[in-house]
Specification:
Strand content: under 5%
Number of helices: 3
Structural class: mainly alpha
Shape: globular
Order of helices and strands: HHH
Helix content: 25-40%
Distance between the termini: 18 Å
Radius of gyration: 15 Å
Length: 92
């Protein structure tokens, strides 16, 4: 998406999302600032912890179809910035 990012992350009981997000945003903002001399991220972020009754595949499908809902493309497979290390997005 041109104005925001969706991440679907897995963790363990003792995982620290805040620590990860701080490092992720700091590293990516540094590279972006060097390249474009602009700020990349707003302060904070929105998080949603999956409940037991929520299927990871449904959330992945929601994220992949975000550009479709925004009217950027007709099929999520057309979006060049989608990717996954766990799901075959061609099959979603």
């Amino acid at each position: 998406m041109p104005d925001h990012l969706h991440l679907l992350l897995g963790g363990r009981e003792n995982s620290e999302l805040r620590v990860y997000m701080k490092a992720f945003k700091q590293a990516s903002a540094y590279i972006f600032k060097k390249e474009f001399n602009e700020t990349l991220w707003q302060r904070g972020y929105y998080e949603h912890v999956l409940r037991r009754e929520e299927a990871v595949e449904d959330i992945a499908r929601y994220i992949l179809n975000n550009p479709v809902r925004a009217g950027l493309i007709e099929d999520f497979r057309q979006y060049p910035y989608s990717g996954s290390s766990l799901f075959d997005i061609k099959e979603m």
